[in-house]
Amino acid sequence: SSPCHKVSKVTGKAQDTTTGPQGSSNQTGGVVVRVLFGKAERAIGSVRFRYLDDPVITEASPAESFYAGGRVVMVTGRNLDVVQRPVLAVWVEPVEVQRMTCRTPRVTPDLKIKGVWFQMDNVRIHFKSIIVTDDLISISVADGSVCLSASQGQSFSYFPNPEFFPLNREAPNAPYRFKPGGVIAVEGQHLTRAISRHEVTARLGDEECEVKTLDHTHLYCEPPEIQPASADGGELPSLKVFMGSLQVDLGPVQYDSDSLLSPVPLAAQISLAAVAAVIILSVLVVILMRKSKQALRDYKKVLLQLETLEINVGDQCRKEFTDLMTEMMDLSSDVGGPGLPLLDYRTYAERVFFPGQHVAPLTRQLDLPESRRQTVEQGLQQLNNLLNNRLFLTRFIHTLEAQQGFSQRDRGYVASLLTMALHDKLEYFTEVMKTLLQDLVQQYVAKNPKLMLRRTETVVEKMLTNWMSICLYSFLKEVAGEPLYMLYRAIKYQVDKGPVDSVTGKAKRTLNDSHLLREDIDYSAMAQTLMVKNGVEVQTCPVKVLDIDTITQVKDKILDQVYRGAPFSQRPAADSLDLEWRSGQAGHLTLSDDDVTAVVHGRWKRLNTLQHYKVRSSDGATVALIPRSQSSGGVGVNQVFQTGEKTPMLEGEEEEGLRLWHLVKSSEDPDIPKHRKSSMRDRERAKAIPEIYLTRLLSMKGTLQKFVDDVFVAILSTKRPPPIAVRFFFDFLDDMAEKHGIDDPETVHIWKTNSLPLRFWVNILKNPQFVLDVQVSDSMDAVLSVIAQTFIDSCTTSEHKVGRDSPVNKLLYAREIPRYKQLVERYYSDIHSAASGCYQEMNSTLTELSGQSFASEMNNLVALHELYKYINKYYDQIILSLDEDSSGQKMQLAYRLQQVAALVENKVTDL
Questions:
Q1: Which of 87-101, 215-229, 609-623, 712-726: highest mean pLDDT?
Q2: From CA 726, how far away is CA 831, in angstroms rounded?
């Protein structure tokens, strides 16, 4: 037995006791209770005290509270019923914090930082040994900035100084003109890399210019209303920015109010001012007071709205991104192997070489009468031999380009035909391309070299595009294809989660302001049970759609989910299937975009939706896709698009003037002139509430940000060696610049941008269907256009300036573009600094590509036959050009071409 340690309450009838440490037991079981009264002792035989197992706590949550306390903590465990008075206790002690401030020492950029520490007399404390709180410490110094990250053991880092531009960049020697009442905008680079706004001060003359905003490229400060005096005795005050020990003088500032003073004598000025004040003072005071108060209220209101908007969008982005990553998780496990629907090389080349052509030369056969086939093929083989003569080929191209009727479309077509014809001789093709490019450089150096390769205005520019496409196919397959596909899937998933107008292509979830569905449309997501026939078995699977989807949209979404991850070409077309709504044993109803139940109001006819048919998931909707019968072949919507506007008309009802609509009616009439359409669009845009549609754009952008970053990094990373073709061609451009005495780095940067990002990568980003076996809808194309434009903006050398009048699509990625620009600059710089002389390696690669099996898939004879059509059209001019060249005369090039003409089309010649 153990004595009770403490008597809590003693009465004549009852006694409460509490066991203490001395009354504890190391085992469970019953013991006799004894009570001591001074020296007297009494045993209570009828009562036995039982020791039970100690309480055990297995879980307690939540694990945080505010200082005032009172939060309920739920405790889970065993033997908790034994405890009579559970108490949650906290152990506290007074906190004494001593603070001091230290200025970072100055260093020069050419020195390597080995360590940073605090020297406390004889005690040395390194930053790596300090446990830092969650706050980020950042300091700016004279020749560099210091940043200490918030974690234990993190090194103290120095960065290059922020770069400031003069206030008056156009005329640095002239003062900056400032209108009182506004703010001064200071431009620069890396302004926030290692310092916060609260650590920056600015002074205009001898007074403070209050820093209002600081971001990566801009500092905004509000100067005094009256022009202050100069701090150094000069005529005008200078604006100086202080960042730690760094002081930057940005130039003198002159208030516009001073320049308005005329050289009238002071007394006359005072008199005139007094007279004017008497007349207008009373009116101005009232107006200005009202306007200033209203402006202040509006300013505060806008700030509050923006802050609320940013918080709400951030929360929404995090939720959307979590949902998206969950959706993408299953897909990502399949990608990288057979799950990546990469196009075979022949289809890829066909789409890149001949975009927009339904029957490209790669898939056509030579259509000739059998009696002429052997002779024509013999002539085409001789033409092939002629094309392998560099003089003939260059003369042929230059002669075509000199003809007035040789259009820009013809130039691209001929370039792709030549690529096909010479695909098995890529070394020769590359040498010819270099020769033509040297001629092109010569032309642009005499005019404006920065415009070279900007557009496809010559045959060689399209040849370059095709050459890049050939050489980078393996890079797409091994590196860039996967992140591009993940971006495509992420966009498709996000767009399909919200309403999409099937007529206009506008969507609620988009990045493109002009393709944004601004109207608030009531809709709900619904789950349907799809019946799938697998052999003789009928299986069911859930599919997600929206109740406002058209029937075609429902079929597309069902096919997307059933054939998830499969190439688009391997799944049935939506037009070949009917959607049946099934209820019970006999209830089968075929749903269609257009039928006798469609609603018609005036000249508008609405497409049918699930909502129209009263299909509800609460009723356990069951649907099935069945092959379309012949009788229902005309039920679907056959769309005839009018010129200038994507508004489909129903076939058979076009004469009646019926116009289709889905979610919103188009506000434009096709008969309205173009200039009036633009003004109507402006009015429509002005009616939209910015907080609503900006939230939609920002949410979409935040959700897709990781996928956009992954694609850009895959394209521009130099962690693995860049493709040999890129290194080879950039080296060629550097040589051309050196040869022609171009020492402006911006010009060479533009050449490289125009030859690779603009000519190849933007095309791939805008058209993933060129590389992947996927379908790109209009609403997805609108999103991809914004991403492609962002990539273009990131490759430019000019500063990405945005303001309140900038397009929304430009504003959307304004913060990310400086980071992307650094990626591009580092990519170009790393390739330039790498060892040159990769010509031998390039030739080996070209030889390998020429000998691969897909080179033989190029339909050589069809390409030659198409090229001959241009020879026939400009036959006399080409013959004359060949005769004018002495080398061509020695090689009898004109005669050989006449022989080709005689064989291919029985052309009679005088030789």
A1: 712-726
A2: 8
Mean pLDDT of 180-209: 85
CA distance 157 to 194: 9
Q: How many residues does the chain have?
A: 911
Rounded to 5 degrees, φ, ψ at 256 are -65, -30
Strands (E) in 190-231, as ranges, are 200-204, 207-208, 210-214, 218-222
The tokens describing 742, both together, are: 């171009």
Nearest of 646, 903, 658, 892 to residue 777 by alpha carbon: 646
Helix (H, G, I), strand (E, B) or coil at 208: strand
At 235, give phi and psi (nearest 5°): -75, -40
Strands 659-661 and 604-606: parallel
Quote the CA–CA distance of 271 and 267 in Å, as a whole number: 6
Q: Where are the alpha helices (DSSP H) in 335-423?
A: 345-353, 370-387, 390-401, 408-421
Closest CA to 143 of 124, 166, 167, 161: 161
Q: Work out the average pLDDT over 621-650.
A: 52
Q: Could you tell me the two tokens for 26?
A: 């190391």
CB-count burial class (<10 Å; 0-12, 13-18, 19+) for 525: exposed
Q: Does the predicted TM-score (pTM) go above 0.70?
A: no
CA 100 – CA 78 distance, rounded (Å): 50
pLDDT digits (tens, 9 = 90+) for 501-510: 999 999 988 9
- pLDDT exceeds 70 at position 676: no
DSSP state at residue 477? I
CA proximity to 728, closest of 430, 429, 422: 430
| Range with the poorest average pLDDT among 406-415, 476-485, 696-705 | 696-705
E-strand ranges in 566-638 read: 577-583, 587-591, 600-601, 604-606, 622-627
pLDDT at residue 854 greater than cutoff 70: no
Q: Where are the domains of the chain?
A: 163-255, 370-402+858-910
CA–CA distance, 36 with 776 (Å, rounded to integer):
91
Q: Which residue has the tokens 């009439």?
A: 669
**For the chain, the helix, strand and coil percentages under 3-state DSSP, each to the nearest 5:** 45, 20, 40
Average pLDDT over residues 404-431: 92
Maximal C-alpha separation, the chain? 148
Other Cβ atoms less than 10 A from the Cβ of 380: the count is: 23
Over residues 208-229, the mean pLDDT reads 85
What's the number of CA atoms in the CB half-sphere (13 Å) around residue 876? Answer: 0
* Separation of alpha carbons 187 and 803, rounded Å: 13
Instruction: Find out if CATH 2.60.40.10 is the number for domain 163-255.
Output: yes
Is there a contact between 703 and 495 (Cβ–Cβ < 8 Å)? no
Contact 19, 2 (CB under 8 A): yes
- Residue type at position 829: S
Three-state SS annotation for 859-873:
CHHHHHHHHHHHHHH
Please state at what angle helix 839-851 crosses helix 459-471, rounded to 10 degrees: 80
Reported as a single tens digit per residue, the pLDDT across 160-182 is 888 898 888 777 788 888 877 77
Rounded CA separation 201/170 (Å): 25
Find the DSSP H helices in 501-605: 551-562
> Is 397 in contact with 436 (CB distance < 8 Å)?
yes
SS3 157: strand
For 803-827, letters b (16+ CB in 10 Å) and e give eeeeebbbebbbebbbebbebbeeb
Q: Which residues pair with 184 in a beta bridge?
A: 221
3-state secondary structure of 211: strand
Task: Please give the Cα distance from 843 to 427 (Å, whole number).
Answer: 6
**3-class secondary-structure state, position 601:** strand
Token pair 């083989």: residue = 381
| 901's tokens | 């003409």
Tell me the pLDDT tens digit for each residue of 689-746: 455 567 778 888 888 888 999 999 999 988 888 899 999 999 999 999 999 988 888 9
